[in-house]
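Researcher: Go.
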Amino acid sequence: MADLYREACVADVTAFKPGNVSLASPGHGMTADAFLRSADASAPPMARAGIRLGRRVWLSVSATRSAVGCNTNLGIVLLCAPLIQAAMDFPRHGLRDAIDLVLDAADAADGDAVFAAIRLAAPGGLGEVAEHDVATRCRVRLTEAMHAAAAGDAIARQYANGFADLFDDAVPALAREFGRTGAVAPALTGLFLHLLSRHPDTHIRRKHGAAAANRVMQRAAEVRRDCAVAANDHTAYAALRTFDGELKRHGLNPGTTADLCVASLLMYRLLTRTVRNPGDPGKPQHAETPHPAESAATVH
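Model: Structure:
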């Protein structure tokens, strides 16, 4: 489990995703190294046996904070913890049913641990809310608190809908990208553009407002079309690079979309139970640094 989680986190910075930190493009005052160290630090508690969901989230965020001193992976942890909990606690169930069981079992104590983890990570743009504010103790079941936040937060929405957005859209889209590209990095780039061109990023919306999030969504749709008709990989990569520069100059980070990509890759691996490179079944996919254009290859 630790290896599956770590692979998904490493792929997050191996793939070139406009506006996000990657091996090829630092940004927002961070480099890929912080994300790689976060993956290494959080993998052991994320895969620890015999603990509840809230404890898994808290330990993973705490380990990250100790390793890098800032929030690099709160969204990743929140999304990946229920997937790993489900696979570990209910191995004889289908993953979707197992996730439902995990979420149904999450009580107010789990919610309190998750709230504490969010406070420790201190993500930007949270502000105050009228109901189930994370600045206070959680007094309700975790899923009830997430339901209250679901309209404005795509991560909370997964807790509220049983990860339906991943099962029904993101993971099938990722499978299609794997079928076309044959490698993790370009498949994640394609998934990122697929998601960002269809849904406003809720991290951007929370920090910069709905208008900014909608503009980024529309621009992502343009870039996705440009990549689909690009004459070659380098032309597609140039379009991605331009978009990346635009976003970072304005401090816009589609971070929630990136987190959904990481969780989608983990879910795909759990469903297929393989860490092999789809383009080379005999070769594990690790953290090699690709040529920049490789990460943009055949994005549609």
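Model: DSSP finds 15 helices and two strands in the chain.
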